[in-house]
């Protein structure tokens, strides 16, 4: 179906647009573009707020509904499988993220043919990658002994874990090209559209999740009614690109010029690929490290603690991610004033918001845990404190990373991620074995993140980064 631009959260956007009227704009020709960029950001934030609220509701209710009947072991397995969505996103080889800047550059040049060529070839390339990844992952699952790796006590539960993982893999491979479709809208500075579609998916997941809990559905059904619905809803975006002739399989896509863009896309994508690998090794693989060192039951505590503070990450993403396309557009036009003012605003707002939310959630965490999980699971206060601090550090780092992505400064991030991984992985294993409590996995991440960011960005690349804003 066709979805018009005006149909996307006009009311929230009009309210938030008022908040941007007093922002510092450029002068002359750039002033109008600055206002339009902030208006687009306001619309994206408004739609993302709705999506984030529904997504957080799914996260909260998924624990309340399923933990009582799944039990700690099966719930920990489901959380481990759910974490694979973050861990395996790297398998798109960074092509989806590479699309953002290429699309933004072509859009800034008002070259509609180039936009169509880049988008179509990018999505098709991601489709091929998705098929290849699916074959490799299915073979890997067949070779892994789940019962031994995850320390599962029952062979029946291990079989359920295998089937759930295969279900996830099928959905994940379909989501690889759809992830590229979502990123296209960021490059077009229309980030509100993926957020709106995500909100539709979350809204549909809520009743399905309730029905699964009422019927004590096996884990594969839980995967389908959460992650599966999100994947299916993204098809709306592909249809929209096709209706606007941004995605088209016409013959000139193959015969026309522009294969250089595909080469640039692969080079840029390879850098994003390495960045994603590093972040996964450094932080997203925590459930696997914890389950291997302390057992899968500790993953349940870690997952619940992280989801308790997940509203912070969702809020920060809501505020900062739409700026990626705006930074890229301003970089293409050489408008440093906009980049500088937006970076200052973004860093102050995201850090302040994360700090306030983290302190509030931590202060209310005992009551929230009692209401949320009852007596089903004990999450130590030390673990909650660690996750609270981690949320603030992560928020600041993510806001700055969006700026670096937008101005196409990827190489400094490569060195930062390398330093981060070299510190965090051995530190996590050492601290978990030495102290035997899951909160040390979080503290290791915090230590590694702070050391890597300050050592690389401030110590080595300070002048290079400042050149984009001065």
TrEMBL record:
Ranges annotated as spanning the membrane: 45-69, 75-102, 123-144, 164-185, 197-213, 219-239, 270-289, 309-327, 348-369, 381-407, 414-432, 438-460
Domain of life: Bacteria
Coiled-coil portions: none
Name assigned to this protein: Polysaccharide biosynthesis protein
Record organism: Caballeronia novacaledonica
Compartments (UniProt record): Cell membrane
Keyword tags: Cell membrane, Membrane, Transmembrane, Transmembrane helix
GO cellular component annotations of the record: plasma membrane
InterPro entries the UniProt entry points to: Poly_Biosynth_Transport
Keyword S-adenosyl-L-methionine attributed: no
Membrane-protein topology: Multi-pass membrane protein
